Write a sequence for this structure.
């Protein structure tokens, strides 16, 4: 539907588009977690799905849906109860927001990897160290190491998306 003259129609069509994109991204996040759960919940927690946090650099409206995706994946796929669900939501929110701010302030795109590595790597061990009785420093080091791959994948994802956007 063409909405040239009516800004209300244009706005609601855009909101519907955002909702649809959010739903698809949330589904992809959860499916990625399901397919990679054998190593996403291990000692190094290589969570490829967290590379999707990088999408908030290009689409800031995904910040909350990405946080909800983390909450849902922890609830559905072997998280450690309510602390892990709420913590996962907060990590998603903080990490996606940090990614968005890097883009907003026109910082080097490679810096997008840092919140993807250190957001989960330094925040998750706050509660996880208590839940599984592992010292914070050891857990933080292993999670940060595991997040290096998702951080790199996130940077590649943003660069690829921006190239596609420029082409169109």
């Amino acid at each position: 539907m063409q909405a040239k003259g009516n800004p209300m129609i244009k706005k609601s069509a855009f909101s519907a588009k955002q909702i649809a994109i959010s739903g698809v991204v949330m589904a992809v996040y959860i499916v990625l977690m399901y397919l990679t759960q054998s190593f996403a919940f291990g000692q190094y927690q290589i969570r490829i799905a967290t590379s999707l946090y990088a999408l908030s650099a290009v689409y800031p409206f995904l910040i909350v849906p990405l946080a909800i995706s983390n909450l849902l994946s922890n609830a559905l796929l072997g998280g450690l109860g309510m602390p892990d669900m709420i913590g996962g939501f907060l990590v998603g929110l903080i990490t996606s927001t940090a990614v968005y701010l890097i883009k907003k302030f026109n910082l080097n795109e490679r810096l997008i990897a840092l919140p993807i590595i250190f957001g989960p790597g330094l925040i998750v061990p706050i509660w996880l160290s208590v839940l599984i009785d592992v010292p914070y420093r050891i857990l933080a080091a292993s999670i940060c190491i595991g997040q290096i791959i998702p951080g790199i994948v996130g940077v590649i994802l943003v660069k690829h998306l921006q190239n596609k956007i420029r082409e169109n």
Q: What stands out?
A: The CA atoms of residues 27 and 69 lie 8 Å apart. The first helix runs from residue 7 to 35. Helices lie at 7-35, 37-40, 55-58, 63-76, 82-104, 113-132, 136-146, 148-167.
